[in-house]
Amino acid sequence: MMNRLMEEVKKKEAPIVVGLDPNLSFIPSKIMNNAIAEYGETPDAAAEAVSEFNRALIDAVADLVPAVKPQIAMYEQFGIPGLLAFQNTIVYAKEKGLIVIGDIKRGDIGSTSEAYARAHLGKIMIGNAAFSAFDEDIVTVNPYLGSDGVLPFVKIAKEEKKGIFVLVKTSNPSSGEFQDREIDGRPLYMYVADKVKEWGEGEPYSNVGAVVGATYPEEGKRIRECLPNTVFLIPGYGAQGGKGKDLKEYFDKDGLGVIVNSSRGIIAAYKQEAYASYGEDGFADAARAAVLAMKEDLKEALS
């Protein structure tokens, strides 16, 4: 799956994944009001508004980017209707030819970890029938319970020819509280990077990728030296301060090996001064314009 992702990046000349993290404040009032008129002020209305918002965004950017990344917490907050919106978003994105990265950050042990992996990457048998619950192509995994929490994902990803991104060095300000702690002269995140190399396989790219934040370029350079054939999922671009010029060391020797996430910088672009002229009704066109601007900015990393 990582090889397919990089082929799509090359085809579209855009190492970009659009984060579908639909806070209700991002949704235009017309969409929200129509949903409330039909369902009342209920989670069903929120889920319907989110689904319509996502469909319009996907339609606007599907020809420009290789992937989208729905963050499951933004859907779970609406309960069962929200999870249905999450599922519907995955189905619609795949219909449009996009790779779906499920940002689920799961991490547990034993049978529980395997159940998460089956829910998001694999299949469950019900009698003689195999059923896929969410069916993302790639998911994010939290490694801090050790191999017990990751290997079930590795196993099912291999069976299903899918992939995982393991959290290595995240973009949030407090990530260093644990990830930068030194053990025998090396930061903890480098030990995680070592395990990512051990868990993965495949050429030219490993099926086990790494989450490496755009806000820590020196750390990104060090991790890339350790993981030359690993795809990096890079959060922290745009709203968190990362710029294209900061990402030069994240790319591999072929100018590939990364997929850079932008969420509110794209899906709520119409709220930014640079795209205000599009207005609420033009939110999808504003998102498209933001993707095109991001594509140009990322060229600085390769110039």
Number of domains: 1
Mean pLDDT score: 95
Helical segment count: 12
DSSP strand content: 15-25%
Main sheet: strand order: 1-2-3-6-7-10-11-12
Q: N- to C-terminal separation?
A: 27 Å
Overall number of strands: 12
The CATH homologous superfamily: Aldolase class I
Please write the CATH class name: Alpha Beta
Per CATH, the architecture is Alpha-Beta Barrel
From the alpha carbons, calculate the radius of gyration and give it in angstroms: 19 Å
Low-confidence segments, ≥5 residues, pLDDT <50? none
State the CATH topology.
TIM Barrel
Percent helix among the residues?
40-55%
Overall, the morphology is globular
Question: Helix-strand pattern, N to C?
Answer: HEHHEHHEHEEEHEHEEHEHEEHH
Sheet with most strands: 8 strands, parallel, barrel
Structural class: alpha/beta
Description:
This protein is α/β, with parallel strands linked by helices. It has a single domain (9-157, 234-301), classed as Aldolase class I (TIM Barrel, Alpha-Beta Barrel). 44% of the residues lie in helices and 17% in strands. It has twelve helices and twelve strands. The chain has helices at 2-12, 29-39, 43-61, 73-76, 79-95, 110-120, 147-160, 176-179, 188-199, 217-226, 264-267, 283-298; strands at residues 16-20, 67-70, 99-106, 124-126, 129-131, 138-141, 163-169, 182-183, 186-187, 208-212, 232-234, 258-262. An eight-stranded parallel β-barrel has the order 1-2-3-6-7-10-11-12, surrounded by seven helices. Helix 2 (29-39) runs antiparallel to helix 3 (43-61), helix 3 packs parallel to helix 5 (79-95) and helix 6 packs parallel to helix 7 (147-160). The model has no long low-confidence stretch (mean pLDDT 95).
